[in-house]
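Handout, page 2. Input:
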Amino acid sequence: MLFSKNKETMLSIGGISLVIAITLDRFAGAGTIIDFLCGLFTGFSIVMNLGFLITYRIEKKNLNYTENKS
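Output:
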């Protein structure tokens, strides 16, 4: 996996993508390309944030399992 060593990178990329999408939506005006980019960055933000949450949950679950086992 690309972000296997530093999972917090996924969270920061998701946050930055969301900020870019909101900024484009508010200040860039209307147009098909702007709407496409807003949707692209919003979708990328959703994917990155959910990916972080899933990997964080799996990592935390595995950590708790190894602590309880020993």
